[in-house]
Design brief:
The complex is a heterotrimer of chains A (510), B (147) and C (441). In chain A, 37% of the residues lie in helices and 17% in strands. Chain A has 19 helices and 19 strands. A six-stranded mixed sheet of chain A has the order 3-2-1-6-14-15. A five-stranded antiparallel sheet of chain A has the order 8-7-19-18-17, with helices on both faces. Chain A has a two-stranded antiparallel sheet with strand order 4-5. The longest helix of chain A has 29 residues. The relative contact order of chain A is 0.13. In chain B, the strands form two sheets. Chain B has a six-stranded antiparallel sheet, with no helix packed on it. In chain B, strands 4-3-5-6-9 form a five-stranded mixed sheet, with no helix packed on it. Chain B is rod-shaped. Chain C has 441 residues and is mainly alpha-helical. Chain C contains 16 helices and nine strands. In chain C, the strands form four sheets. Chain C has a three-stranded antiparallel sheet with strand order 3-4-5, with helices on one face. A two-stranded antiparallel sheet of chain C has the order 1-2. In chain C, a hairpin with a 2-residue loop joins β3 and β4. Chains in contact: A-B, A-C, B-C. At the A-C interface, α1, α2 and α3 of A face α10, α13, α14 and α15 of C.
Chain lengths: 510, 147, 441
């Protein structure tokens, strides 16, 4: 009988050993990446304090972030505050943010972008060797965009619509990240000093700022309605001219037009876009119906967050919504027709990030295919002389993108957007020609937005792309936002035009 | 490059270190398993009973003839009543013989009896290993070892 | 006395790899530390393997027929420890006596020699266990008094009074009382086993264990537990309790004792948590060490970082273990956290081998218990084996944060003379038991 008990005892002991083995496996394998990345891990602290760190270059090879060793302490310096929101900071005291965080393993040399050499390094316990990053952003365009915003609070995003490469991503006000780095003691209080400034400079408005879009949303509404066949470019609404003055009654609620500045007439899509008729687009939205509106919303990437870059090495972009966000993170169904009609011209519950609207503009520019934005063009071997290294360890391969609407739909919307900038009526609403600063090179497609708020001046918006004349391939798509900037045509549109013109000029000069 | 060479050498040496440990470990595990299997077999045998003596002929009918006597690992046979197997026969000695199970086989040993112990009709003069089926004669009593 | 030569080929075959293993481990750590292609000093490594070979030779000469796997298993377990201790800074611990300064690895080697000698004395000398079982009360009372003496007059280290100093040599009586306790419980249970297993007090439908039969043992056990708990040696308390319940279970086969005992333990732990601030600190540091990673949680957090650095394949012998100011960041790495250190440098792969070895040692002990010729020997073997197995589980469990960390050692692996000596006495007793059952066969 005792022998049986002993056998049972040995089974219990085996279970005991199995449990501690699982415990070991948990910490050594499953939770190891989390532990290894913790800021208070002495390995991380030691590595951070004295380790070299990769350089971050702009697209033209200028140094944006670099590390120098002084008295055994690695001090990181940042050359251009306009990049602070993209690059973030690597601080002994405050941790890492932005690309510094997303690419921490590569910049610090904890891992190699090439999985095979990464494994060999690990097996042989080779010392860490940092790698450098080269961004897709050209410092000249970034600085130009930042200048355009000046002291205003706002954001500019510029994408290459063909690839999704980010050409500029500016959020104002910004901050100088250099004081945050260096010794833990010397950087004390630096972050508090920044966050104490007005309009919270630490927030990246291109990715984290969510604003009512106003009329720029009509680009989306038009694309959705054309693509689903609900309207054609010639569609008119008989009662629209009357409603421009009397208002459109939906569910007992009257939707009124903004100050058009021209006499109402029976408009089809192009003039309705040019004068930015809320009544016309309310009809389009109602005809589209709530289900299709949401379906196209999701196709265009609303209702969920996305990332710039892929996997763990990515910057997160807050989700944009066309209705109230649902508890599971997506869009809830429309509350009723008033919400639907208002969403069609970018009011009601619609909130968007500048990055999302730049994607929408780029989708139209790219023939209906939405590109995936990315900002790191290549990972390079560590440079010793301050110029980008020759050895490219990893190069971003732009994804093929995702078809959102048909090519003909995109072409129709593009035409209407060109009209909105350059048409008879449109010129009035697009800074009166201010958008087409580079006129000689080509034409511009765009749409302004003046997003009404419960209080304060409206947000000023512009989205667009260029060159947009027939036969041309657009090379830049932008979204410009000025918080409380007033009418889109006055503030945002000229800036959008200037940024696009600047880029095309830089490109032509090359 | 010498650094890499050194690291490679260290890696190899360490693999060797672990290899020795795992080699010994598997050796241990195998030895242990073999041991356990052996122990189980021994136990199976003991559970099945190690054997019995079938009484073939017993003039005084003690032990009763035609009946089996179950055996323990150590059995003494003789005319003394203190023996494990009491044999009431005038030709048997008081402490006649020892029948023991050692390891995996039975042994019979004469304890200096007057008339001797016979295995398959041969008188034995030293301990003899028995097989199942062997016939044992003590005095006039004949018995057969059975499983 | 049998002084007939009995070959122990199996033992020899498994001991010989030590001559490759330990010097190789020493050489790897030397190369890793110096960056030079040279083996470094190997005297300690060779001496270690030679000690085991000598012990083997003495067993052969004395005609010992005890188990042949115990010594090699212990040898490999100890090899892990020696390699790790040798690569750590040698001044972490050590001994300085009679004008001789010994580093940590050398001291440990000395204790291995003493331990092996003690093992041989017990294994060869203890041909009859009569004096163990007949004087069990004397043993137990003497043990309890020694424990009490330590508690009252011992030297306090890290808030616990567990050490008695004889000249320069510190001894932890708790390690030895473990053995005395097992002897006592085994002797007691062997006598009363049938009573405990069969009889029960019936109160209506509930059948209770026959408490009167248990009372003397319980009284002594409670006394020992009280002293241990009051001297703040929680790991030892857990260990003693575990050994007690295990032996009770094996002797009687009644799970109710174990369940009841565990409930008692949980209740006791709760009381201890409420009463003692140091228990609260330990438990809090266990539940969420990351809440205070620089102070109360420091030890645990650093150890977990060590495990994480190791991963599956380890940082490599001699290539792990971060140091600050020449000291490993993992505190008490030579004793409480030796398992973590091994897991860091040899990875899960090496640590699992270590655990498997410890488990094999346990299996071997249980096998000896099954083959023992009488119940006292069987229960003694159970208790001794359980003491090694549970102690391993408690310290490794603490290392991987499954249970709060306690200060028990990893048998044969951790640095520490008392622990080594006591563990070797356990092996000596197991050898002696298996020798006697082999003779009986």
């Amino acid at each position: 009988m005792m022998a049986a008990n002993i056998r049972r005892l040995s089974a219990y002991l085996v279970v005991g050993f199995a449990i501690v083995s699982l415990g070991l496996g948990y910490w050594a394998v499953i939770d190891a990446p989390t532990l290894a990345a913790r800021a208070d891990n002495p390995e991380v602290i030691n590595a951070r304090r004295s380790a070299p760190r990769g350089i971050i270059f702009d697209a033209s090879g200028g140094v944006l972030a670099s590390t120098t060793l002084t008295d055994g302490v690695a001090v990181r310096s940042y050359a251009d505050p306009a990049f602070s929101h993209v690059i973030g900071y690597a601080s002994l005291r405050y941790g890492t943010t932005g690309l510094e965080e997303a690419y921490d393993d590569i910049l610090s040399g904890l891992s190699d972008p090439n999985p095979v050499s990464d494994m060999i390094d690990d097996l042989l316990d080779r010392p860490m060797e940092p790698s450098d990053l080269q961004l897709t952003i050209d410092r000249r365009l970034q600085d130009f965009a930042a200048q355009q915003l000046g002291a205003s609070v706002g954001a500019i995003v510029a994408l290459d619509p063909r690839t999704g490469a980010i050409l500029a991503s500016v959020s104002t006000p910004t901050y100088d990240a250099s004081p945050l780095t260096g010794d833990s003691e010397s950087s004390e209080g630096a972050l508090d000093a920044i966050s104490a400034q007005p309009n919270n400079p630490l927030v990246d408005r291109t990715r984290q700022g969510r604003y009512t879009p106003g009329s720029i949303m009509k680009v989306f509404t038009a694309a959705a309605a054309l693509d689903s066949g609900v309207i054609t470019p010639d569609t008119t609404y008989e009662e629209q001219p009357r409603e421009e003055t009397e208002g459109l009654v939906v569910d007992g609620f009257t939707i009124t037009e903004h100050d058009l500045g021209v006499a109402p007439a029976l408009w089809n899509l192009s003039p309705a876009m040019q004068v930015s008729s809320n009544i016309y687009f309310a009809h389009v939205g109602l005809d589209l119906g709530p289900e299709r509106f949401l379906e196209y919303g999701e196709r265009f990437g609303f209702c969920r967050g996305f990332t710039i870059g892929e996997g763990e090495r990515a910057l997160a972009v807050a989700p944009s919504y066309v209705t109230v966000s649902s508890p599971d993170g997506g869009c809830s169904p429309f509350n009723g027709d008033v919400d639907l009609a208002s969403a069609a011209f970018g009011q009601a519950e619609v909130v968007v990030t500048p990055m999302q609207m730049a994607r929408v503009a780029a989708t139209i520019a790219n023939g209906g295919v939405m590109p995936e934005p990315y900002v790191v063009g290549s990972v390079r071997s560590h440079s010793e002389d301050g110029a980008p290294g020759d050895i490219v360890l990893d190069r971003a391969t732009p994804s093929a993108g995702r078809r959102v609407v048909g090519q003909s739909t995109a072409a129709q919307v593009r035409g209407v957007m060109v009209d909105a900038v350059e048409g008879e009526l449109g010129r009035l609403y697009a800074g009166n020609g201010a958008v087409t600063l580079y006129g000689a090179i080509g034409s511009t497609a765009g749409k302004t937005g003046t997003a009404q708020r419960a209080e304060g001046e409206p947000h000023s918006w512009f989205i667009g792309f260029a060159p947009a004349q027939a036969g041309a391939t657009p090379a830049i798509a932008v979204a410009v936002l000025l918080e409380g900037g007033g009418a889109g045509s006055v503030a945002a549109a000229p800036i959008g035009g200037a940024v696009m013109a600047q880029w095309l000029t830089l490109q032509a000069a090359r | 490059m010498t650094g890499d060479l050194l690291r490679l050498a260290l890696l190899g040496a360490q693999l060797g270190f672990l290899a020795i440990i795992y080699f010994v470990l598997f050796g241990f595990a195998r030895a242990l398993l073999r041991d356990l299997r052996g122990a189980e077999r021994a136990q199976l045998v003991s559970q099945a009973g190690i054997g019995r003596l079938m009484v073939l002929e017993s003039p005084e009918d003690e032990p009763p003839s035609g009946r089996p006597i179950s055996l323990g690992p150590i059995n003494s046979l003789g005319r003394n009543v203190n023996n494990t197997i009491f044999i009431e026969d005038d030709f048997a000695s008081a402490n006649h013989a020892m029948l023991t199970f050692r390891g995996r086989s039975w042994f019979i040993e004469d304890q200096g009896s007057t008339n001797g112990t016979y295995v398959n009709a041969h008188r034995i003069d030293r301990p003899v290993a028995l097989s199942y089926g062997d016939e044992l004669t003590i005095g006039r009593v004949r018995m057969r070892l059975e499983r | 006395m049998h002084l007939t030569l009995a070959p122990r080929w199996r033992e020899l075959r498994f001991l010989l790899p030590l001559f490759g293993l330990v010097p190789l481990g020493f050489a790897i750590t030397h190369v890793a530390a110096s960056g030079l292609f040279e083996p470094g000093a190997l005297e300690v490594a060779v001496a270690y393997a030679a000690l085991f070979l000598a012990a083997h030779a003495i067993l052969v000469v004395s005609g010992h027929r005890g188990d042949q796997l115990l010594l090699p298993t212990v040898g490999i377990l100890g090899a892990f420890g020696m390699v790790m201790l040798n690569r750590l800074p040698q001044d972490i611990a050590g001994m300085s006596a009679f004008g001789i300064e010994l580093g940590m690895a050398q001291t440990q080697l000395l204790w291995f020699a003493i331990g092996l000698a003690a093992m041989l004395v017990v294994a060869v000398g203890l041909r009859d266990d009569g004096f163990l079982r007949h004087y069990k009360y004397t043993w137990a009372v003497a043990g309890a008094l020694l424990l009490l003496f330590t508690f009252l007059f011992g030297r306090e280290i890290y808030g616990a009074r567990l050490w008695i100093y004889v000249g320069p040599i510190g001894i932890q009586p708790g390690e030895f009382i473990k053995i005395v306790l097992v002897v006592f419980i085994a002797g007691y249970l062997a006598e009363t086993r049938s009573l405990l297993a069969g009889a029960s007090l019936r109160i209506g439908p509930i059948s209770l264990p026959p408490l009167p039969y248990l009372a003397p043992m319980l009284a002594l056990f409670v006394a020992v537990m009280l002293i241990v708990v009051i001297s703040r040696d929680l790991g030892t308390a857990l260990l003693f309790f575990g050994i007690f319940l295990t032996m009770l279970f094996v002797a009687t086969g009644r799970r109710i004792y174990v369940v009841f005992g565990m409930l008692l333990f949980v209740a006791g732990s709760w009381v201890a948590y409420e009463l003692f601030s140091h228990v609260q600190r330990r438990v809090n540091a266990w539940i969420d060490p990351f809440a205070d990673p620089t102070d109360t949680g420091y030890q645990t957090v650093q150890a977990l970082y060590g495990l994480a650095r190791g991963g599956l394949f380890g940082e490599g012998l001699g290539q792990g273990l971060l140091t600050t100011n020449g000291r490993p960041t993992i505190f008490a790495v030579e004793t409480d956290f030796i398992f973590t250190a091994i897991a860091e440098e040899l990875g899960v792969l090496g640590a699992m081998a270590l655990l498997a070895l410890a488990l094999l040692l346990v299996f071997r002990g249980l096998r000896i218990a099954i083959g023992a010729r009488d119940e006292f020997s069987a229960l003694l073997a159970i208790g001794l084996t359980t003491s090694l197995g549970l102690q391993t589980l408690i310290i490794v469990g603490g290392n991987v944060k499954l249970i709060p960390l306690t200060g028990v050692t990893f048998p044969f692996v951790s640095y520490g003379g008392s622990s080594l000596l006591a563990s070797f006495i356990v092996i000596g007793l197991l050898l002696s038991i298996s020798h006697r059952s082999a003779l009986n066969r």
